Amino acid sequence: FTRHAEGSVLVEFGDTKVICTASVENKVPPFLRGEGRGWITAEYGMLPRSTGSRMGREAARGKQGGRTVEIQRLIGRSLRAAVDMA
Predict the structure, then answer these.
(1) Which of 8, 38, 46, 53 lies in disulfide reach of 2, CB 3.0 to 4.6 Å?
(2) Is residue 16 a contact partner of residue 22, using CB atoms and an 8 Å limit?
(3) 63 or 28, higher pLDDT
(4) Considering the domain boundaries, does residue 49 fall inside one?
(5) Among 49, 46, 36, which Cα is nearest to 68's?
(6) CB within 8 Å of 58: residues ≥ 6 apart
(7) Is residue 2 situated within a structural domain?
């Protein structure tokens, strides 16, 4: 769906549209160096006007809200639980 990502998809559930992209980097966080394992992270964001009243972009404010942080954590943990990174 997006041109530059290693993998991407657009899925629709009624009026809800989700774009998911995957990128691959040949590095791991410092706490995993030398362990022979990989790592998965997640980023989440809602577009302005994705709700009934306009939400400001969190990136423009320079700070993510607690809800966004928790959703990112949930997505990352779910992906790490589903993928064998050994």
Answers:
(1) 8
(2) no
(3) 28
(4) yes
(5) 46
(6) 45, 64, 65, 68
(7) no
